[in-house]
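Work Package 3 (structural annotation) set out to generate three-dimensional models for the target panel prioritized at the project kickoff. During this period the team completed the workflow that converts sequence records into C-alpha cells, so that structures can be stored uniformly alongside our sequence database. As a representative example, we reproduce one entry of 536 residues exactly as it appears in the project archive.
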Amino acid sequence: MELNLHYFPYPGRRIPVVAERGVVASSHPLASQAGMQILQAGGNAVDAAIATAAALTVLEPTSNGLGGDGFALIWAGDQLYGINGSGAAPGRLSVDALAVASYTEIPTHGWWPVTVPGVVRLWGDMHDRFGRLPLDQVLAPAITYAAEGAPTPPMVAYFWARGVEAARTRHGPEFAGFLPTFSIDGRAPRPGERFVSPGHARTLRLIARYGADVFYQGEIAEAIDRFARETGGLLRAEDLAHHRSEWVTPISMQYRGYTVHEIPPNGQGIAALMALGILDQFDLVRYPRDSAAAFHYQIEAMKLAFADTFAYVADPRKAAVPVADMLNRERLAARSHLIGERANTFQPDNLPRGGTVYFATADRDGMMVSMIQSTYMGFGSGVVIPGYGIAMHNRGCGFVMTPGHPNQVAPGKRPFHTIVPGFLSKDGFPIGPFGVMGAHMQPQGHVQVIVNTLDYGLHPQAALDAPRWRWERDGTLRLELETPRHVIEGLAARGHQVVVESELGGFGRGQIIWRLASGCYVAGTEPRCDGLAIGW
C-alpha cells in the first residue's frame, strides 16, 4: 500500500503520526495517554486498549460508560480474533410486556431499553486471554482520572451540556442518579474545567480488585438489581449473572486486493462489507475523489447494503441470519447492476431466511486492537446507578416489535447493534485497525475511509479529514459543510435529497493505524473531535 505522507488535500491542523514501538489513537487525548502509559510500562496492545477503554468511560461519558456494550478485533500472532461484548434483553423484557405498558415501539429512555451491559465482561475476557500486565495496573490511569479529576476538552463539553439539558426534562425515580453523578451544581462541566467522579472511581477500584465478575455477580450486580427493583426496572441479578462475552470468527470481504474484516451480526459491520463488495464491481478511480460520481456510487452501494442489513441482521443465537448469502460476491455483483446514474430506492434482496467511542492500539510485537464501546444515545438510557457512576445504555432501542422480524425483541436476545470495529489485511499480513463511530454512520464511515485509502491512496489523516456523507433511512443525504459545491450540486442533480449540515458530531469520529512494510506504524485521528494519536 503506497501512501503519500506529504499530501494534504483537505483543510486540517493534524499530520499523520509515525512510530515504531506502539501507537494509541482515541477520541480523547488523556485516554490515548493512558493507553500509552501502559504500553511504556511493558503492557501489550490489549492492555493498552483496556486502559484506554476504561479511561474513556471516565473522560468521555457522553459517548460510553461502564453500563454499555463493546466489541473488539484483535490481531495476535498470525490470527485475527473477534469478541462480541454485547448484552441480551432482560428476562422480563418482551413484546407482551411492552404491549401491556401501552408501547407500540421501544422507548429511548428509562429502564425499558436497558439490556445487560457487556463492556466490563469484555475487558475481563480480553485481559484473561491476551493481557500481560495485572488488571489493577491496567485500570490505574482511569482510576486516577476518576478520583482526582480531569479537565474537560471542548467537544466533550459541548455534548455533555446537551446531555445535561436533556436530563432536566426527564422525571421519575429511575432518573434521580443522573444529575448528582454527571453534573457540577446541576450543569455540565465547562471546557477546561476539572470533573471528578468518585462513584466511577469506586466501581473501577472494585473491578481492579475483584475482576469483571464483581460487576455481574458481586457488589455492583447487587446495586444494579436493587436500584432496578426500587425504580421499576426489568433488569435483575440473574440477567447479569448469565451474561458472557462471545469469541467470534470475523467476517470479511475482498476489496481491491485487500481484505476488510468486521464483527459478524448482531452488529451492522456486514453492511460495510456488502457495500464494498458492490463497489468492487466499479472502477471508482475513473472519477476524482471529490466528484459527484464517486460519491454517488458509494452512496447507492451503501443503500443497497442497508436494505438487506435492516431486513436480516439480528442475534444469530436466536434467529437465522443468512451471513454467507449476504456476502456472496456473485449476488453482490448482480445487486451492483441496480445502480444507475440517478438516486434510487432499494428493497431487500430475497435471501434464504434462516454516542460511541472508537479507539485503536498497536504494540512493538505487531499486536493490534480495533475496539469500540458505547452507551448508545449520548449518556444512554438516562438511568444511572447511584454511587457507582454507571450510566445504563439503551441498546434495547435496536430491537423492533414487528411480528416475525428476526430482530423482534425477546428475553435473552441481543439487539441489532450499530457499533462495529474494522480491520484491514492483505494476503494474511495485518495492515491494521480502523473505525468510525456514530450509529448508522459507522458502516458508511468504514466504506468511506477504505475507499479513500485503497482507491485514492490517502494516508490515515487525510482519509479521516476528507468531507463525509451520511445517508439516512428517510432518504435524506446529509453532506458536510466542507463538501465542494460542485459535488453538492451534482448529487442533487442525480436525484439525491441533499441537506448540507453544519451540526457537530453527525458524521462520526474515527481512528486509523496502518502497519507499514518497514514494521513501523502510521496513524491518523479524527479532526471532528478532541482526539489524539500518540506514538512511541
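Residues 287 and 294 are 6 Å apart (CA to CA).
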